[in-house]
Design brief:
It is found in: Cell membrane. The protein is globular, with a radius of gyration of 26 Å. The chain is of the alpha+beta class and 520 residues long. The chain is built from 19 helices and 5 strands. It has 2 domains: 330 residues, Na+/H+ antiporter like fold (Up-down Bundle), CATH 1.20.1530.20; 94 residues, 2-Layer Sandwich (Alpha-Beta Plaits).
Length: 520
């Protein structure tokens, strides 16, 4: 691209992004996912303006991998290790055994009914076996289902990209049918294990490094965190192990760190990049598709899509979750919530880049299936959750603690959001029992700063600003979480840390409520 073409390209790109952002509101009113509108937007632009279509399959795959790395990084950052741990076993089985079951069940009728070549049938089954991280993270976090079920499906989406991309690469290459099955299984296991090692190592290194950087600007912390995450993906890829697994696990460990500085800035930055990646990825895949070829793939897409939804996915969920004694309602929902999106389309572009005969049919059928599932499957999930009795009212959210270091003072500021239903609600500041060196300096209520005194009482929706020494940080967070769980009972259930010695008058341990107080 020349310098003269830069401005028009930026103008077109900014217009596409703005239209996509506005499309999110439109999609919500129409009851369809915004990801579908992005894909349709790309298809429409490619059909109306053939000159801007993406024709290089290898470039499409590279851009797709880059976007998936950013999406998985955001998904990992917003997944707590405490939520992932209880569903780790079922998620791994669903992302491994479930993938193999899905491939076999989808490929069989394609060979018997559609007369498809075995290699192409297995390839189509493989690209459809992976659930889409962007779709799962976007849709599941908007549903009111149990945290365990949501964490299972999100973890599956984070894990199953790793084995599927290896399977697709092997099937699309000349090794299909020649390499023994044990060699293929060993290669997949080695790549996944290597990705796990790299991701855990990068995550622990980031947890140690980020709080000690003492950077001169808040905006540098999100950049540092993202660099560490993308570095984990790149290092894993250089070592020929799973970069997707590495970046997701590294994100989980970083996001779960108790001492993550400027957490909100990091999460906000990652969320914005994930949205840009999702928009760019779906629009790019729409520009890459050839609309004129799609009618030829309708028959194959119908057989593969119906088999996937009716047989393959439910059977995968049943065989993977039944041994863990999950309830049949949860198994039924998991068997219906295998969301497909950009990931299968990106993986379907791999054989196109390799020049495999018949790969156009695999790509076109995958695109048709994804379009139909985004249009039909996703809007039905809330109704299905209600019918199965899995919808749950919004419960008490975990106490969020935001920290910002005060360089040169060996201190930091803790920001605490008080959710509805927290034990902090109704508690007087003097009843918090914070350790020595920590003090509530400000309460922000309804956007207005409130002075803090012995009569200050915490309400739902308040934001507390607490100044603490580095030494007292852990004890302060532990105390806040204890009061958040147990309320005033925390004073008896858990002993208070030593109180700071101050030269101010003592405050009563149980102050009387003053109806005329400013903060009452």
């Amino acid at each position: 691209m020349s310098l003269e073409g830069l401005a028009p390209a930026l103008l077109i790109g900014s217009a596409i992004v703005l239209v996509s952002i506005l499309g999110v509101r439109l999609a919500g009113r129409l009851g369809v996912p915004g990801l579908l509108l992005y894909l349709v937007l790309g298809l429409g632009l490619g059909f109306a303006f053939p000159d801007i279509r993406v024709s290089d399959a290898e470039l499409a795959t590279v851009l797709g991998y880059s976007a998936l790395a950013l999406i998985l990084a955001h998904g990992g950052l917003t997944t707590r290790a405490s939520q992932l741990r209880p569903v780790l076993g079922p998620a791994i089985v669903l992302a491994s055994l479930g993938v193999l079951v899905s491939i076999a069940v989808v490929a069989l009728p394609l060979v018997l009914l559609a007369g498809l070549d075995v290699q192409l049938a297995v390839l189509l089954g493989a690209v459809l076996a992976a659930t889409d991280a962007a779709a799962v993270f976007t849709v599941m976090r908007g549903l009111q289902v149990s945290p365990r079920l949501r964490s299972l499906l999100e973890a599956e989406a984070g894990f199953n990209d790793a084995p599927v991309v290896v399977l697709v690469s092997i099937v699309a290459s000349g090794q299909f049918g020649t390499a023994p099955w044990w060699q293929v299984a060993g290669l997949i296991a080695a790549e996944i294990a290597g990705g796990v090692v790299v991701g855990i190592a990068a995550g622990f290194m980031a947890k140690w490094l980020l709080p000690r950087l003492a950077l001169p600007a808040v905006g540098l912390y999100p950049i540092a965190a993202l660099a560490l995450l993308i570095g984990a993906y790149a290092l894993a890829d250089v070592l020929h192990v799973s970069g997707f697994m590495a970046v997701y696990l590294a994100g989980v460990l970083i996001g779960s760190a108790r001492r993550l500085p400027h957490r909100r800035s990091i999460m906000g930055f990652a969320d914005g990049l994930a949205w840009v990646a999702e928009i760019g990825l779906f629009v790019m895949l729409g520009l890459f598709a050839d609309v004129s070829r799609l009618p030829q793939a309708l028959g194959v897409a119908a057989i593969a899509g119906v088999t996937l939804v009716v047989l393959a996915r439910p059977l995968s969920a049943l065989l993977s979750l039944a041994p863990f004694r999950w309830a049949w309602q949860e198994i039924a929902f998991a068997g219906s919530a295998g969301l497909r999106g950009a990931v299968p389309i990106v993986f379907a572009a791999i054989p196109l880049g390799l020049g495999l005969t018949g790969s156009e049919l695999v790509f076109d059928a995958t695109l048709i299936i994804v379009l139909v599932l985004l249009l039909v499957q996703t809007p039905l999930l809330p109704l299905l959750a209600r019918r199965l009795g899995l919808d749950t009212p919004t419960g008490v959210t975990e106490l969020e603690l935001e920290s910002a270091p005060l360089d040169g003072m060996s201190a930091l500021v803790l920001g605490v959001d008080v959710p509805q239903g927290s034990g902090l609600v109704g508690t007087f500041v003097s009843e918090l029992g914070l350790p020595r060196g920590s003090v509530v300096s400000l309460i922000v209520r309804g956007g207005q700063a409130q002075a803090v005194d012995e009569h200050s009482r915490i309400r739902a929706g308040d934001q507390l600003l607490i100044v603490s020494t580095e030494e007292g940080r852990d004890a302060t967070e532990e105390r806040l979480r204890a009061v958040g769980r147990d309320g005033r009972l925390a004073s008896w259930l858990r002993p208070r840390p030593p109180q700071p010695k101050a030269n101010k008058r003592p405050t009563p341990s149980h102050p009387t409520r003053n109806p005329g107080s400013l903060n009452e």
